Amino acid sequence: MNSLKPFRIDNDFKFFLLDQRLLPYKEVWVLIDNYQEMAAAIKDMIVRGAPAIGIAAAFGYAMGFRDSENSPDGNIYMKDVKKTLAATRPTAVNLFWALERMSTLYSTGTDFKTLWNEAFSIALEDEVACKTMGKFGADHITGTKLRVLTHCNAGALATGGWGTALGVIRELHAQGRLDVVYSDETRPRQQGSRLTAWELKRDGINVEMTTDTMAGHMMKSGLIDCAITGADRIASNGDTANKIGTYQVAVCAHYNKIPFYIAAPVSTIDFSIPDGSFIKIEERDESEVTHINGEIQTAEGVKARNFGFDVTENNLISAIFTEKGTLLPPFNTAILTLR
Ligand code: MRU
Questions:
Q1: What residues are in contact with ligand 1 under a 6 Å CB criterion?
Q2: Residue whose CA is closest, atom 5 of ligand 1?
Q3: Where exactly does CATH 3.40.50.10470 map onto the chain?
Q4: Ligand 1 atom at shortest distance from the alpha carbon of 242
Q5: Does the structure show a pLDDT above 60 at 253?
Q6: Is the pLDDT of residue 235 over 60?
Q7: Average of pLDDT values for 81-106?
Q8: Which residues are known to be catalytic?
Q9: What are the backbone angles phi and psi of residue 31, rounded to the nearest 5°?
Q10: 130-336 fold
Q11: Best substitution site from 191, 282, 306 to test ligand 1's pocket, by max atoms within 8 Å of Cβ?
């Protein structure tokens, strides 16, 4: 079940990204031929989701190496490649993690094919990690006929395949323990309604769309058993950055005594920062808020704020599912042990 991936590779190292901006209306594969195109694709959100961004950047780095062979100074060229790819999006740590892994390999004096295979390994390892954390998550969560709320897209499209939060949900579904997934719309880019709901429906998993503002009411009304999301960066104490609106879901869950879970690979943990206050929150163009599909949603000239992510403090998180096991509070101890 589920062979969906955010990228496809054809013969002769031809790399394509599935244009997530056009889903679910159109399935268009965009050829990415060099690192500049990859950087633009990450920035413009053709590809999105923390692990998928890391994977795309890794392939972009390998493409940069291929082109560096025509440059007078390969080392300077590769520094520029890394800098350009790293400057695309600030919050998801997988981007920097993957570039670090690629540049460390580059510094050993390697060739294009080895770098390309390394990028491929990052993708493959991520898919395996998703399947493993999915099992850990489903083992931890108790009950049947579960009604699970998720926010944003933490599915196959956002990862090397399968998904982090959706990995847990897929496993619950496979075990026959899932009643329904409530997929928050996730304004402003609607990853929940356009990507998550599409992915789940495609795989025959019962999904219903909700707007971001419904979580509190639905929890209070006893309609939700637990909430699970992915993560863009987890600090050493467990504070977690994820798509804007996640914090509200976690606060409502805490208030209503409903478990709130994070599912993420170890590559999403930023061991270098002590807590969530060190996470840079991306602020994107206001037109993403003022417009939907090019149509203005407010009066001409009204300004908007557009924070892409928020940070959920560790005390609001019941457990973090990783491929190395389930982390429980106190997260600073659990994460230190993991390290
Ligand atoms: O802005 P995006 O679409 O890249 O943000 C995606 C998210 O915030 C996801 O929830 C997160 O990366 C989890 S990925 C498995």
A1: 48-51, 92, 152-154, 158-159, 164, 191, 229-232, 242-243, 308
A2: 49
A3: 130-336
A4: 8
A5: yes
A6: yes
A7: 98
A8: 232
A9: -75, 130
A10: Rossmann fold (3.40.50)
A11: 191
Q: In the chain, which segments carry CATH 1.20.120.420?
A: 7-127
Ligand 1 centroid vs 188 CA: distance in angstroms? Answer: 13
Q: pTM for the full model?
A: 0.97
Q: Tens digits of per-residue pLDDT, 179-210?
A: 999 999 999 999 999 999 999 999 999 999 99
Q: Is 131's pLDDT higher than 90?
A: yes
Give the mean model confidence (pLDDT) for residues 302-329: 98
Adjacent-strand bridge partners of 11: none
Give me the pLDDT at residue 70, please: 86
What pLDDT score does 1 carry?
Answer: 57
Whole-angstrom Cα distance, residue 308 to residue 299? 22
Q: Choose which residue among 17, 187, 243 to substitute to test ligand 1 binding: the one with the highest number of ligand atoms within 8 A of its C-beta.
A: 243
CATH topology of domain 7-127: Four Helix Bundle (Hemerythrin (Met), subunit A) (1.20.120)
Q: Whose CA is nearest to atom 12 of ligand 1?
A: 49
Point out the ligand 1 atom lying closest to the alpha carbon of residue 191: 3
Ligand 1 atom closest to Cα of residue 155: 15
- The whole-number pLDDT of residue 19 equals 98
